[in-house]
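Appendix B. Raw example, untouched.
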Amino acid sequence: MTDTLRLFAFNCGWFQCRPGYFVEGDEGDYLRGPVPSYLIDHPKGRALFDTGMHVRYRRELADALPSDKFGLQWFEGMDIATRLKAIDVDPGSIDWVINSHLHIDHCGGNALLPNATIIVQKRELETAQHNPQAGLYEAVDYDTGQKIAAISGEHDLFGDGSVRIVPTYGHTQGHQSVIVRLAAGEVLLAGDCCYTERNLDMMVLPRATVDVEQGMLTFERLAKARAGGTRILFGHDGRQWATIKEGVAL
């Protein structure tokens, strides 16, 4: 690794659903979207944005979900620890894990980063703790023994404006995203505040939005950022992911 801030993308699994799950009214064959994780390698430390799924969602290729079935899955080698090792990064060297939110497909790999401090919005942590839901909020994913930094609102991770955690409420009560300032410009790691680019193009929230008013405010901020030149990496956009090179600095 160098002394320059770098960003790496990894896919840690697959999320299969009907098109209408993302953009209500859309029809067609089932979509297969990525379950991304991003390594932010800064001269002052290493952070991950989201960590994929827990081992209970691992499948053998021979036992993969049918292409027309809703669900989550990952295969051998797709866990975040293996992804990191593939680029010679020790999972134990990760200083921070920034969870966009605490749904099962965004924090299921937290346990694989034993020395990281988990950064999450306080209101998201409280929601997960007080309202456990099978298939959404499960303590086995996020209650993994590391130190937790429960923040409220924006947070400048390194104090230099290069990695900013910003609230993007809507999908959940405490969803957050990260804006990374690279030499080529800003990149916004959206998480599930916006599943796909088509959602933003159409300005249509998915049904899986707990606060529609906040969700639309978030979409308006994303649209403004995109118009200003910010590159947005969406939460589960298979079409966009086909253009991403994994394990290579973006």
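End of appendix B.
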